[in-house]
Structure formats: structure tokens, C-alpha cells
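Class prep. Write one:
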Amino acid sequence: VQLVESGGGLVQSGGSLRLSCVASGTTFNIFAMGWYRQAPGKQRELVAVISDGGNTSYADSVKGRFAISRDNARNTVSLQMNSLKPEDTAVYYCNADLLNRPLNYYSAFADRSFGSWGRGTQVTVSS
């Protein structure tokens, strides 16, 4: 599975951005698609993940501000980010996982290697 992210950029605190990720290749059996982020000097962390059935899980830090959505027919996953804060600044990565794991796996093991990863898109929130 190949993943390509788009939609990052520079935004002021309180602003919004929408990230998108398109999957190609062997996509029919993707179970979970998610967004992760890594800030300088920090470990990669889960932002949000969505299963093929539409179940979602979010990091506590983004609940109520971010929304993940998925279009299985178009093999895309999007992340709507509202009320952005400077601490949201990071490189955001898209992930697609073929294995049927419980969603809490992705928050617990976000820094591990699993599934397929995009190259990342930079999100910078200025204060």
C-alpha cells in the first residue's frame, strides 16, 4: 500500500487545516487508517484512527477539535483540524494497517513499525 498525504501548512493559532491521504496499491483489505504526528525531539504519537467499519479513536489532546473521516470507495482518509494550537505543530503521517487490531493498539504502540506509512506533511501553528 502506498500513501500520499496533502494539506499541511502554516496556520495561526485558532485556525483550521484539513489533511487528506490517498492510498493506492492493494487497498481492498485495509482495516485501519490513521493519522500520527511527531514533533521535534518527541516520539511519534497517535492523533486519530478509524476502522473500516467507522469506529474511531482519538488522542485526548485533540478530542473535540479534530475529526477523522474515511471514504472506503475512494481509499482516502481525512483529518479536519480545528482550533489549532502551537502544540499541534508536528509532521503528520498517514498510516494504513491491514491487520484487524483493537483500536487501542494504535495509541499504545504508535511509535512502532506497522502497516504502511506516508512520507508526512508538515503542520505548523504559529502563536
